[in-house]
Amino acid sequence: MLVALEPFSGKRRPQFDSPAVSHLSTLFKTPARRSPPSYSSPFVGRSEVLKTAVNSATDFCMILPKNAHTNIGDSEHPGGMSNYCSREGLHNAPNAGSLPDNFWRNVEYKTGNGFVQLTGCINAASVEQLNVNDDGGQYDSSGGAGGHGNPRGSICVGYNHYVELVEPAGSRACIRCCNNPTDCPTTTDRSGCPKVIPGNYFDCA
I need a labelling partner for 80 at 20 to 30 A (CA). Which of 10, 16, 35, 184 fits? Predict the structure, then answer.
């Protein structure tokens, strides 16, 4: 007896009833793609902390204008300032700019009870960021808006506070790092280096 077979059109998928075959099908099934995990950094949206340092007359970092031939006062806005280190001082802030070896013409390094400082005469023309005719201004860690510093959030490595004055027209500069805020006054910035940070200023003026 002949039985008519239904022709296979190719549109039907074969059915597998074998448990082994069904298991293999599951093993080789393409997994669903997963989105990569997202991470949020606590530093997103924050600028890098600008560091000053005073370890010796040749190992130090200071704040200066970021752009060339800029008055200190004109640099005092977010993004207008940067830190610069002596050759020996770059270990304090590896991403800082470099100061020339002849930045100081005469300098005295002094330590006291909870503070350290540099005072002296500078070669303002040796640093392109400075305007040699600028009477100068002040940077600090505890002044500025809300007492958060200028530049905001800037620090002195190893100390709680710092105050720095740069006076290009007078060929003079000074920086003091201290633990007690009274040793780093921020409200006498117009009085000049000798008033804010008493020390040896040689023959700068």
Answer: 184
Q: Which two tokens stand for residue 29?
A: 């099934």
Could you please report the per-residue DSSP string of 13-47?
PPP---HHHHHHHHHTSPPPP-PPP----TTTT-P
**Size of the chain, expressed as the number of residues it contains:** 205
- Which residues constitute the domain of residue 76? 51-196
**Is pLDDT at 11 greater than 70 in this prediction?**
no
**Predicted TM-score of the model (pTM):** 0.77
pLDDT for residue 44: 31
Nearest to 65 by CA among 47, 79, 48, 49: 79
Give tens-digit pLDDT for 159-168: 999 999 999 9
Cα–Cα distance for residue pair 181/160, rounded to 1 Å: 8
21, part of any domain:
no
Residue type, 110: K
Q: What angle do CA 90, 92, 95 make, to 5 degrees?
A: 60
Asked whether residue 205 is assigned to any structural domain, the reply reads: no
Q: In what order do the strands lie in the sheet with 115-122?
A: 104-112, 115-122, 172-178, 161-167, 137-140
Is 204 within a domain?
no
58-67 pLDDT, tens per residue?
999 999 999 9
Number of domains within the chain: 1
Residue 109 phi/psi, 5-degree rounding, is -100, 130
Measured distance CA(119)–CA(53) in Å, rounded: 14
Mean of per-residue pLDDT scores for the chain: 84
